[in-house]
Each structure stands twice: as C-alpha cells, then as structure tokens.
Amino acid sequence: MTGFGSRECRLPGLGRVSVELRSTNCKFLDIILHLSEGYFYLEEKIKQMIAKKIKRGRITVGITINNEETNQVFMNKRLLKKYIMQIQEIKKEFKIQESMSLEGLINLPGVLALTKVYPSKKKVWLGLKGVLRQALEDLLRMRQKEGQALKRYLNVRLELMRGLLGEIKRGFKSAMQQRLRQIKTDEERNSFIKDVDISEEIARLNFHLNNFAHKLSGRRTAGKELDFLAQEMQREAATMAAKSFDTFVSANIVRIRTQVEQLREQLQNIE
Q1: For a 10 Å CB count at each end of the chain, is N or C smaller?
Q2: pTM confidence score
Q3: How many CA atoms does the CB half-sphere of 249 hold within 13 Å?
C-alpha cells in the first residue's frame, strides 16, 4: 500500500535530523535507504525497525543528519614546524629578509584542514530512532486508511462474484435440463453430464469466496493467503469456462474471471 510519513527536529549533539518515508506497492518487502555520509552503519538497525512493522511494499527511506558541530578545524602543528624550520634555513642560506606571514603559513599544503568528528554510534541511534518511530507511525496511519478503503473495494467485488455465481448456478441448471431432454439414450446423457457438469466447481468457488471473506474480515495479516485463494478462484472459473456449453453461463463465467483479476491486482497491496 502507498503512504508517506515524515518528521524533522533538532536534537542536542546531533543537530537537525530529518526522516522521510515513502511506501509504494510491491509483492515483497523492499527497503531502499538514503543516509547522510558517515552514518551508513545505521542501515541494518533502520531496516530491522521498519521490517517489524511492515511486511510488504517498497519503502524508500531518506534520512538527513545535519550537525554543524561535527565540523572541526584541524591544524597540523608538527608539519607547520617543519615548514617554518625549512623556511628559516632557506632565508638564512640565501639571505632573504622577507618575513613569514600567518596567511602564507596556514595556506601551505596539509597545515590546515576541516575534519568531521561524529558523535558516538550509541548516541546517534538513541536520538534517531525516536524520530524514525514517529515518521513510521505517520506512514502506518496513512497505509491503514488506504487499507480500509481497499477492504471495502474487495468486499464489493466479492458480492458481485456471489451474485454472478448464483446466476451461473441457475443458468446451468436450466440449460442442463433443456439439453438432457434432447438426448435420447441414458449412455449419451451420462457422457454429456460427465463432460459438462460444473456443480463441483460451483461449490468449490463458493467455498473460496466464503473463505476469502472470512480472512479479509480478520485482524491477522493475510495478504499471501488471500492471493492464494484468488488463484484457486481463477482455477475453478477456468475449469467452468472449459466445460460450459451455454452462452449465458459462459458470459457470467467471463465476468467472474474479470472480477478475480481485479481482486488479484489489488491483493498485491495487502500485507
């Protein structure tokens, strides 16, 4: 299911922390992570935290930690002393009177550098996981709203299929009676019934519809189970289509197969 969640705050010792989560449809759980430089060691912890809450979907995670306090000026005094000693020797040897300037010294290669000093890993994770948890809760709330709308959509499809199955059952019974009256011998009747009888398929499809409705109304995660049931529905409908000899029945079987396909498309979004 799709969703979005984001949080941003300023934390002592970490600076500005921004977390953004985006969820799109996917059969499996796929977490794509974008982290600020220097914090890649957090990847596994972040993925584990998300995986505890989400089982299916492509989750794109963007985390920015902007801590100005990590920028530190480093002066290589040992190297600077070597420069000064060499310069003084050169001035003495060649009798150069020109004095050394501070600007000239600090611009010498390797004397002055800007380095980053990162907080401890424990401190970073303790600060980040609270922000991540809040953004994750935002995402889950949005996914839950979409899930309720999707559940209503699937229930409408189920009711349509139940109605179509009732039409198929009545149409098959009527067409069978008419055709059997036209067949003269018991042997031919038995052979015809064996080839075209779809009573068992109707019963199994009705069972799958009821089972689907039961699992859909439950609280437990059942996306893969629902997908399996939809596959079984499609299998029974395909068998019915192969056996059907009546145009009215065949037309309604096609409608059922269309509804099952629509079910399966949406089931990719359910955990």
Answers
A1: C
A2: 0.67
A3: 24
